[in-house]
Amino acid sequence: MEIHVTSIDDLPRAAQLFLEQFDHRKIFLFSAEMGAGKTTFITSLLHAMGIEEVDGSPTYSLVNTYDSPMYGKIFHFDLYRLEDEVEALDIGIEEMLYSGGMCFIEWPEKISNLLPDNVIWSYIRRNEDNTRTITVEL
């Protein structure tokens, strides 16, 4: 599946489409180059899930936790600054991954050995015309 985003104004539509397709899944992985829009798209997903106040990227804290009135517990991870998988274990990532809550994970490659099987991989590509293409793989 591909979702094309031509401007920031398209993000609410793209987030809703994404959630409609994959609302029964719990763990979503987002891979992209720096600045491609991972956090921006996840913020749109959180808004579509009823989260009004979003804390931004958890770049330094590694994880932000939210309670959605429609989806329950949501974890947003930004693992860019993660040193190794041991550090992920130290913050309790396994408990969060297997809690039954939804997980949005930026830079998932850093914990590839810790990821469960039933995940959704999403790749965000910045196109030459500054639009974005979100490719989703099951």
Keywords:
138 residues, alpha/beta, Rossmann fold, seven-stranded mixed sheet, 4 helices, 7 strands, 25% helix, globular
Folded structure, characterized:
The structure is a single chain. The protein has a single domain (2-137), classed as 3-Layer(aba) Sandwich (Rossmann fold). 25% of the residues lie in helices and 30% in strands. It is built from four helices and seven strands; from the N terminus they run βαβαββααβββ. The protein has helices at residues 11-22, 38-48, 85-90, 93-97, and strands spanning 2-5, 27-31, 63-68, 72-78, 102-106, 119-126, 132-137. It has a seven-stranded mixed beta sheet, with helices on one face. A hairpin with a 5-residue loop joins β6 and β7. The radius of gyration is 14 Å and the shape is globular. The model has no long low-confidence stretch (mean pLDDT 93).
Brief characterization of the structure:
The chain is α/β, with parallel strands linked by helices. The chain has helices at about 10-20, 40-50, 85-90, 95; strands spanning about 1-5, 25-30, 65-70, 70-80, 100-105, 120-125, 130-135. The protein is globular.
